[in-house]
Amino acid sequence: MRARNWLIGVLSIGLGVSLYWGYSQYTVAKQLGINQKNQYQQAARDMVSHSELMENFLAKAQASGSNANNLIHFTGAWQEANAALNNMSKLPVENPGSTHISQFLNQTSEFSYLLAQRIAGGGTIKPEEQKMLADLNENARKTNESLSELMQRVEYDNLAWVKPEPNIMQRVTGWFKGTAEADTTDVKQPTTVAQGIQMMDSQLQKLPPLEYEGRFTGKVTQEPKGLPPNEATKEQGQKNLTDFFGKLGLNYSIQYQEDTQGIIPTYKYVLNGNPNIIAETSKRGGVPMIFSDNREIGERTISPEDAKAKAANYLRNIGYPSLYLTSIEDYQSYVTLSYVVVEDGVRIYPDKVIVKVAMDNGEIVTYISRAYLMFHQPRNLGKPKLSVAQARRYLKPDFKVSDTALVLLAKDNYAEKLCYEFRGHTDSEEFLVYINVATGFEEEMYRILKTPEGEFLK
Amino acid sequence: MLKGKLKLVAVISIAIMLSLTLTLTLQAALGDRNLNRGDTGQEVKELQTKLNQVGQSIKVDGVYGRNTENAVRAFQRGHGLKADGVAGKKTIDALKKATAGSTNKGGKAVGSNSKDLNLLAHAVTGEARGEPYQGKVAVAAVILNRIKDSRFPKTIAGIIYQPGAFSSVSDGQINLQPDADAIKAAREAMNGSDPSHGAVFFFAPEKTTNRFVWSRPQICKIGKHIFTK
Fold it and tell me: How do residues A304-321 score in pLDDT, each as one tens digit?
C-alpha cells in the first residue's frame, strides 16, 4: 500500500514536470513564431510602401516639365525601387530566382538612375524613353494592385506566410495515410503568401515585356566574340591543349571528362589522371580557356617580381602579343595577376586574362581567358576628339592627376567607351576617373583602397 | 634605522619590478616574440583568434598546446611558409596580413571586403562540405553570379539569407566555422574563377524533387551538384 502511494507520487511529479516542460516548449515556439511573423509583416509592408512610393515618383516624372524636380523624381524612383527590392528579398518565396517582380524592380531602378544621371548632366529624355517610362509606370501600378490584394488576404483571411508544419493530429493521420504530399503549385487560390507571390509573378510575366536593353535586361544572350565560328570536336580540343602545353614546354596526359553548357560551352579534360588538375577548351574553335592545378603550394621562395616575369613569359609563349598588367594580388602562397590587351596604345579593359602563380617554384597554376574569349574582337577605336588637356578640364580642379592613359572601358551593360583614365588623388583618397574622349562625360569613377593583398577598386 | 631603510628600498624595488613585469606581460603584443609550444597568455589568445579567422577551429584558451601548434602548421602550409609549428615573426606577419582590412590613401581604415569573403566561405561550408575543391569554388561562384542577375538581391548577405534560397541557412549549417579550404575557394571565386560557367542555381539530384530547379537548363555536374542557368 505504502509502495503504491509512493509510486503514484513519483508518477504524478513526473507528469507535472513533463506538462510544465511541454508548456514552456510550446510558449517558446509560439514566441519564435510571432517574431518570425512580425519580421515577414514588416518586410511585406515596407515592400508595398516603397513600391507605391516608386510608382508615385514615376507618375510625377512623366508629367513634370521641371528638370530640377524630375531629378528628384528619378532619384526617388531609383531609391524606392531598391528599397522595395531589399525588402522583397526578406520575404519567403517558393522558388527564389523565379521572380519577375524583382526583375521589374531592378529595371525600374536602373532606368531611373540612368535618366537621373542624364538630366543632372543637362541631357533630355528621348520620346522612346517617355514611352518606356509610361510602360514602367503601368507595370508598377499593376504590381502594386496585386500586392495590396495579397496583403488584404494576409490581414483578413489569415493567410499563412509559409506552409505550416503539420500539427500532432495531422502527423498521426499522415502516418496512416502515407506521406503523399499534394503538389499545390497549380491551385487557383494561394494557401500561403509564398505561393501568392509566385502566382503574382506569373501574372506579371504576362505583361508586355519592356523594350529596354540594359544591365538587367532579362535576355542576356551575349555571344562570345573572340572565338572562331566553327564547332570543334573534343579530339580537336584535346589536340589544341597538347599544342598549348607544348608551347610552354609542358607535357600532360589529357583525358576528356565532360561537356559544360555555360555562356561559353566547353569540353572539360582531366590532366595526368589527377582530378585536381583540369583544363577546358571552348567548343567553338576548341580554344584553351581554363587551366587549373589545385596542388598544395610549398614554402615561398620567389618574389612578386619573379612571379610577374614568369607570368609575362607564360603569356608571351602561348601567343599574346601585348598585354598590360592591371593588378597583382599577393596571397602569400600564390599571387593572382590580371592582364588586359593593349592595342595601338589603348588598354582594352574588357579583354582580360587572369593568371595565378605558385610562389614555391613560380609555376603557373591557373590560367583563365574567359573574358578575353568573350569580348576580344577587331575594333575600330577611332581618334579621341578631346586632347588629354581638354579632358582634364572635366575633372575637379583640385584633383591631382598622377597618371593618364587611354583605355577602352567596359560598362555594366556590355557597352564599351573610349576614355581617358586619370589616376589621381585628393588629400587622403585616391581614385581612377574615366572621361569619355568624345563627350567629356565622366563615365565611371573608382576609389582605390589598399588591402594587404594589393589595390582594390570600389 | 639603516636596516629599516634597506628593507624599504628592497620592498619598493621588488614592487617596481613586479609592476614592470606585469605591464610588460599585459602590453606584450602579438609579434613581439616567437610563440612556441607551451607558451601561454594574451598573445597566444590573440594568435588563436586570428588562426580561427583564417579557417582553423581551435579553442581560444591562451595555451599554446598541440591543437594550436597543428593550426599554426596548417596555416603555414597554406601561406608559403615553413611548416614548423612555431609562430615566429614571419608567420605572425603573414597571419596579420591575412586578417587585415582595407585602408584609403591616407591610411585610414575603410570597411573591409573580408566580411564578404567570410560570409561566402560560410556559405561554401554549409552548402559544399565534402565536395571536391572545384565544386566549392563553383558554389561560391553561383552566389557571386546572382549579384549580376536581376532576379536576385544585390548583396552577398541578401542572396545568402533570402528565405528558402539555401538549405544550409534554413538548417543553421551556415553558422559552422569555415575551414581553410572553404576560404580559399571563396577567394578564388572572388578572383574571377567560375567552374559553374555562369550558373545561378545548383542542386543535389538525389535529394531534390523541386520541379523548378529540375526544369532549369543544366550547365555541368561537379561532385554531387548539378549547376544550372
Answer: 999 999 999 999 999 998
- pLDDT at residue A215 in the model: 52
Contact B98 A452 (CB under 8 A): yes
What is the distance between the alpha carbons of residues B156 and B35, in angstroms, rounded to a whole number?
Answer: 37
The band of B27, judged by pLDDT with boundaries at 50, 70 and 90, is low
User: Could you identify the residue written with the cell 518570425?
Assistant: A36
The pLDDT assigned to A181 comes to: 46
Angle at A295 between CA A290 and CA A298, to 5 degrees: 130
Closest chain A residue to B209 measured between Cα atoms?
A183
pLDDT of residue A218: 45
Q: For A95, which of B110, B187, B212 is closest by C-beta distance?
A: B212
What's the rounded Cα separation, in Å, for the pair A90 and A39? 8
Of A263, A356, A428, the CB nearest to B108: A428
Q: Where is A97: in which H helix or E strand?
A: none
Instruction: Say what the pLDDT of residue B109 is.
Output: 78
Say if residue A259 is exposed, middle or buried (CB neighbours under 10 Å; 0-12, 13-18, 19+).
Answer: middle
Q: Average model confidence (pLDDT) for chain A?
A: 87
Asked if residues A202 and A94 have their Cβ atoms less than 8 Å apart, the reply is no
Report CA torsion sign: A312, A315, A317, A321. negative
Contacts of B80 (CB under 8 A, 6+ apart): A297, A298, A299, A300, A332, A333, A334, A359, A360
Centre a 10 Å sphere on the Cβ of residue A314 and count the other Cβ atoms it contains. 19
CB distance A94–B212 less than 8 Å?
yes
pLDDT of residue A100: 80
| Beta carbons within 8 Å of A433's beta carbon, 6+ residues apart | A395, A399, A421, A422, A424, A442, A444, A445
**A-chain residue closest to B96, CA distance:** A452
| Cα A264 to Cα A376: distance, rounded to the nearest angstrom | 14
Contacts of B150 in chain A (CB under 8 A): 102-103, 106-107, 215-216, 218
- Of residues A89, A360, A456, nearest to B158 (C-beta): A89
What residue spans of B79-132 are helical by DSSP H?
89-99, 114-128
To the nearest whole angstrom, how far is the Cα of B25 from the nearest Cα of chain A? 28
Evaluate whether A421 touches A445 at the Cβ level (below 8 Å): no
Complex prediction ipTM: 0.83
The Cα–Cα gap between A74 and A80 comes to 10
3-state secondary structure of A181: coil
Q: What is the pLDDT of residue A457?
A: 82
Task: Give residue for cell 543632372.
Answer: A120
Q: Is the dihedral of CA A21, A23, A26, A28 positive or negative?
A: negative
Which ranges of B56-178 would DSSP assign to H, the alpha helix? 66-78, 89-99, 114-128, 133-147, 156-161, 167-170
Residues pairing with A368 in the sheet: A290, A354
Contact A50, A84 (CB under 8 A): yes
Residue B31, CB half-sphere, CA atoms under 13 Å: how many? 9
Q: What is the pLDDT of residues A90-104, one digit of tens each?
A: 988 877 777 788 888
DSSP string, A398-414: T-EEEEEEEEEEEPTTS
- Lowest-confidence range among A162-166, A198-202, A241-245, B26-30? B26-30
* Backbone CA torsion sign across A173, A177, A179, A181: negative
Buried b (16+ CB within 10 A) or exposed e, A416-426: bbbbbbbbbbe
Distance CA A394, CA B62 (A): 57
What backbone torsions phi and psi does residue B108 show, to the nearest 5 degrees? Answer: -85, 145
**Whether B217 and A107 lie within 8 Å, measured CB to CB:** no
Q: Which residues are registered as beta bridge partners of B226? A: B203, B221
